[in-house]
Design brief:
2 domains, Cathepsin D, subunit A, domain 1
């Protein structure tokens, strides 16, 4: 893989770089010219392409695309030696989806069918792979951050990570793999039971951390937190780094901060720790995130004399999202067969001489499953009661209106228009 990009090869010897996204379930590629695409999928050149005759629209937290559904044969260079037929959305229109200089021409959603578009009957790529081959139901990701680069001989691109299909590569991590259960198979939903900043507990009801869900999403850059949690976390981070003053816009992701090249004061920024429920639901384990992960380098505005960063923790209205800034510290195993996600320290995480990313445990608790957020369910009898009440309210409003209409009709019969005796009461019905 190249960065988060998987290389896919189509049968007419056409290669595309694809963004690997564990936060969506559609496989989609650019199929029309776009200013940010150097190449795109030419359906007309493929004798194996089949048009499904349906359109599809997919919005993301930022950006959207729409296109046409079809299927085609494809293979994965340097992956399982198989060719499979998979659903493909040919992107014909998009807004803020393709990114200039990103070097990817499509997206591979690796989540479950429940969130596929237009509906869950569309089989995701990984499900097609499992059905048509003997590949085990597991994949793993090593995302390497902007501070880590390494060239592989497989190509001229700078490689920033790996995706292992069907298994685990122990050479990509150090230490033990710790697993947290997949709470629900739609997104890769997990349960966070505690958050600390510099070892200090945010001391919130653990349900707040998972309101209304917590997911592991390689397609999102930031660590995104629910509003109350975000405010508490920023307050704690700001207090820990108070030896320097930062503009309020920095904490909102609207302004950058810069230091002279090579002099970034990493030591003043705290470690953020997330505690995830382990497979033993009365235990948890801790993953520690360094400032080298949550301060995102912004290269296109920095000069040779400065290093500039964006704060990559942001507020969310859709729950906690453990995005790339989290995953870049860890080798993450999506063990779908056993319905669990594993974390171990990545061999390519960026660190300094004082601190390193860590996965540690166990920590004991009680009934940690209760930290998960449950959407309030309304039973059928309650819905029927609400329907009857609404019908009664409508009837109360409609009855006077009907009486007024009848009165108006009766008045018109007694006083035809043109007699000069027209009543102004009709204006109440305009």
């Amino acid at each position: 893989t190249v960065n988060d990009n998987l290389i896919l090869l189509f049968p007419f010897v056409f290669q595309l770089n694809i963004l690997v996204d564990t936060g969506s379930s559609n496989f989609a590629v650019g199929a029309a010219s776009h200013p940010f695409l150097h190449r795109y999928y030419h359906r007309s050149l493929s004798s194996s392409y089949r048009d499904l005759g349906h359109g599809v629209y997919v919005p993301y937290t930022q950006g959207r695309w729409e296109g046409e559904l079809g299927t085609d044969l494809l293979s994965i260079p340097h992956g399982p030696n198989v060719s499979l037929r998979a659903n493909i959305a040919a992107i014909t229109q998009s807004d803020r989806f393709f990114i200039n200089g990103s070097n990817w021409e499509g997206i591979l959603g690796l989540a479950y069918a429940e969130i596929a578009r237009p509906d869950e009957t569309l089989e995701p790529f990984f499900d097609s792979l499992l059905r048509q081959t003997s590949v085990p139901d597991v994949f793993s990701l090593q995302l390497c951050g902007a501070g880590f680069t390494q060239n592989y001989s497989a190509g001229s691109s700078t490689v920033g990570g790996s995706m292992i299909i069907g298994g685990i590569d122990p050479s990509l991590c150090v230490g033990e793999l710790w697993y947290t259960p997949i709470r629900r198979e739609w997104y890769y939903e997990v349960i966070i039971v505690r958050i600390e900043v510099n070892g200090q507990d945010l001391n919130m009801d653990c349900k707040e951390y998972n309101y209304d869900k917590s997911i592991v999403d390689s397609g999102t850059t930031n660590l995104r937190l629910p509003r109350k949690v975000f405010q508490a976390a920023v307050k704690a981070i700001e207090a820990a780094s108070s030896t320097e003053q930062f503009p309020s816009g920095f904490w909102l992701g609207e302004q950058l901060v810069c230091w002279q090249a090579g002099s970034t004061p990493w030591h003043i920024f705290p470690v953020i720790s997330l505690y995830l429920m382990s497979e033993n639901t009365n235990q948890s384990f801790r993953i520690s995130i360094l400032p080298q992960q949550y301060l995102r380098p912004v290269e296109d505005v920095a000069s040779a004399q400065e290093d500039c960063y964006k704060f990559a923790v942001s507020q969310s209205s859709t729950g906690t999202v453990m995005g790339a800034v989290i995953m870049e510290g860890f080798y993450v195993v999506f063990d779908r067969e056993h319905r669990r996600i594993g974390f171990a320290v990545s061999t390519c995480h960026v660190h300094d001489e004082f601190r390193t990313a860590a996965v540690e445990g166990p920590f004991h608790g009680v009934d940690l499953e209760d930290c998960g957020y449950n959407v309030p369910q309304t039973d059928e009898s309650t819905l029927m009661t609400i329907a009857y009440i609404m019908a009664g309210i409508c009837a109360l409003f409609m009855l006077p209106l009907c009486l007024m209409v009848c009165q108006w009709r009766f008045t018109r019969c007694l006083h035809p228009l043109g007699t000069g005796d027209f009543s102004d009461d009709i204006s109440l019905l305009k």
